[in-house]
# Entry
Amino acid sequence: MLEKLVKSREALLGRTAKLQMDCSEQITLTSQLIQENDALAKELKEKEAQLHKNRLEVKKVNRIKETLTKKNRALEEQRSEAEVERKSLRAENEVRFGLASFSSRGPTNGPLTPSGKSRRH
# Structure
């Protein structure tokens, strides 16, 4: 019976040692997982902060884009109005001064001779 108790005690000591070793491994693994979790939480917080900054920047850029688009439309409208006025003044000047020989690039050198050369040289 004493031998049985000694064997049982040795088996329990072996099992206890194994369980203590498993427990130490689990504690080490848990510590590593906690460190990884903390690092990931920190990284996530940084990315969320960067995302917030990016969203603010997008809003700012969109406001600038809208402003520039409005200015561009106004300038295009002014350009169109100026073009209409320019054409009107050009037509008025042609009628008033008989400047039909002016083209959009400037005055011509006068009427051409039958040989194709200008009379004014």
Notes: The radius of gyration is 46 Å. Residues 80 and 86 are 10 Å apart (CA to CA).
